[in-house]
Amino acid sequence: NNLNDTIGSDHAPHLKENKEKKYPNSPSGMPGVQTLLPVMLNHVNDRKLSLEQLMNSICENPVKIFGIKDKGFIKEGFDADFTIVDMNKKIIIKNEAKNVILNPTER
């Protein structure tokens, strides 16, 4: 579906002891910049969205919405930001930090 115009990430790591506090005393946010693309590419592989929808959501639409110049598209005169991925590679996102929750599925 096309319900979301953009997909973004937050990078707000907090100590595990603070995240385990009851709301509203627990801080919001989590590390996410390093997991956004692998998680979303998994959704592409699972056919929950197309690669085109993903690129629109993380590259093209944000620059349109926020009026960012010379970004978000592969065009002459634009900044050349590329990410090369292996769509067949499997990774496991682990919580390897001792004091910070890195993976939202682990506590």
Oligomer: single chain
Low-pLDDT runs? none
Strands, count: 0
How far apart lie the N and C ends? 31 Å
Order of helices and strands: HHH
Shape: globular
Mean pLDDT: 84
Helix proportion: 25-40%
Strand content: under 5%
Question: Rounded to an integer, what's the Rg over CA atoms?
Answer: 17 Å
Biggest sheet statistics: none
Class derived from helix and strand content: mainly alpha
Total of DSSP H or I helical runs spanning 4+ residues: 3
Task: Give a verbal description of the structure.
- By secondary structure, this protein is an all-alpha fold.
- Helices cover 28% and strands 0% of the residues.
- It has helices at 16-19, 36-45, 51-66.
- The two termini are 31 Å apart.
Task: Tell me the layout of helices and strands.
Layout: H1 16-19, H2 36-45, H3 51-66
